[in-house]
Amino acid sequence: MAEELRAAIVQDELTKRVLMLGWMDDEALALTRSSGLVHFFSRSRQRSWRKGETSGNTLHVIEVALDCDEDAVLVSVHADGPTCHDGSTSCFTPWLWRRILRRENEGAEGSYVVSQLRAGVASNARKVGEEAVELAVAALSEDDERVVSEAADLWFHALLLLRSRGLDPAAVDEELRRRAVTA
């Protein structure tokens, strides 16, 4: 068994979003520092491994900082693609996006998500337009419960539209952060 493990929090250098949590022993920490690529200790395989060694989605080290007790590590990175094994930008992805990805990967017949994604971008764009109108009408003439329901429909279908375009909602978050700087 490896020596004491440290929790390693991986954070995007630009957005400061937490991408994942892994574990590092002394060897993984040394490999991370020397190679410039993030390495972890696999508790299941009992060995060090480089993030992205099979997926190609490596994490390039910008900065490594140990906490005051040296029992936790904060690693600032630039990611070459999604960090999570499910294809998400972050392992801390909102549950709805994770569910959409899971349904898409399962490809189950009869799944609403699968049928909408198979329908394509144009169909999803029309559905977003329909849901936006329904939300606007509800906001002007219906109770709060109906407004929330319609907002949920719009939010869900906007995520399906992003997925049908091959986009991650993290890109929307990044755009809003960029705008906040100039606002």
Q: How many discrete domains?
A: 2
How many DSSP helices? 6
Average per-residue pLDDT, rounded, comes to 94
CATH architecture of the largest domain: Orthogonal Bundle
Radius of gyration: 20 Å
End-to-end separation: 52 Å
Q: DSSP strand (E) fraction?
A: 15-25%
Explained architecture:
The chain is of the alpha+beta class and 183 residues long. The protein folds into two domains: 6-79, Phosphoribosyl-AMP cyclohydrolase (Ubiquitin-like (UB roll)); 95-182, Helix Hairpins. Helix content is 47%, strand content 21%. It is built from six helices and six strands. Strands 2-1-6-5 form a four-stranded mixed β-sheet, with helices on one face. Strands 3-4 form a two-stranded antiparallel ribbon. Helix 3 (112-119) packs across helix 5 and helix 4 runs antiparallel to helix 5. The longest helix is centred in the C-terminal third of the chain and has 21 residues, at 121-141. The mean pLDDT is 94.
SSE layout:
Elements: E1 6-12, E2 18-24, H1 26-35, E3 39-42, E4 47-50, E5 59-66, E6 72-79, H2 95-106, H3 112-119, H4 121-141, H5 144-164, H6 169-182
Parallel strand pairs: 1-6
Antiparallel strand pairs: 1-2, 3-4, 5-6
Helix pairs in contact: 2-5, 3-5, 4-5
